[in-house]
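Hallway conversation turned thread

IA: we were arguing at lunch whether anyone had actually written out Putative membrane protein end to end. Turns out nobody had. So, for the record, here is the sequence (390 residues) and right after it the structure tokens. Reply here if something looks off.
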Amino acid sequence: MNNFLYFKFRKIKILNVSYKSILEWIFVIFLFFTGQPFYTWNNLLYKYSIVVCSAIFIFNFAPNKKNGICISILFYLYLIVSLKNTNMNFGLALAFWSLFIASPIFLKNTFRKYLILFSIMLIPSIVIYILVYFIRIKIPNIIISIPARDYSYNAFPFLIHPNVVNVLRFCAYYSEPGQLGTACSILFIANGFTIKRKANIPILIAGLLSLSFAFYLLMFIYIVLFLKVKYKIVILLIISILFLYVFNENEFVKNYTFRRLEIKNGKLIGDNRTNQFFDYGYNRYKKTNNYFWGIDSKTADYYIFRDGSSSYKNIILRYGFIFFCIYCFMVSFIAFSYLGFQKTLIAFLLILFGTMYQRPFVEYINYLYLIYCSIFYMSDRVKYYTGYIS
């Protein structure tokens, strides 16, 4: 009888652990879809994923006394985002709000699982990309398109690629290589900037193949700031030799690397986050009170989307300079409280401001999750599965 009770208790305990792990994996899978890979185009999977993530956030509610004031301020900041953004719906707003009340332990566990899933999904994508665009093996594909782009895409299993002549930048399952490069830089830096961790290898390869200016710039800054002198010299020499002797005569690589580092009219050519039309609107409102509080959504969308702009200035134009400053301060303060004044804090600030400069989408739950939750993932004060925060 006692043996039976012991077996029954042990079985329930195992089921409890499995249930928690399964719930986290379900969350991570749906969170992956909130990044809007091509599987979610022209269907409702993206919206359903937001609802599921919101519900799981709420299910893992845990009052955070440590940073209660900061979390509350972030909560109200996203209330402002919800009210001012014409594209915001209640489900998306709920996802933002519930993220800040979720348990840091849950967020750390799921960040690790998300990193693993993201890495695994990249492997077949990289293989197919090399087979199709380098080895020239024909693999069945279909042509798909989305309203936001004026060109179509070749869709393979696990891979999407713009149907544009002479563009070989790797996109994986995203609409553009810059989105992939930004995500890879966040995950690679948060996971220790090392290839000793196997999950980092596909992430690093994908980031390099994307030829994302943001990815290369963030990697360069991290190397200069954190790696030992001997490693800096070796890595920078290897990169220089590869580019100068192997790719120097390649016109495509020139356009996306060397020429983007050139300075023209006092501005870095690779800094193409804004355009002349957007800059005109931004500078116009910079001289008014709207600069501090943000302009109406319709006008902001007009300046942002007409010719395409992706800069931290988007946040200021839409939500105001005051919102921008409070947001940066609150997230930085939470990072400091969990990471302390250490190397990991500087690494996180590189993630935060590097991402905001390249992808200023504070209203995208996937980007917010990656930035905010990397704090807990890099923190030694948040323990895995123990239920304890020091």
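OS: looked through it. Confidence is low (pLDDT under 50) at residues 1-16, 385-390.
IA: good, adding that to the notes. Residues 122 and 202 are 6 Å apart (CA to CA).
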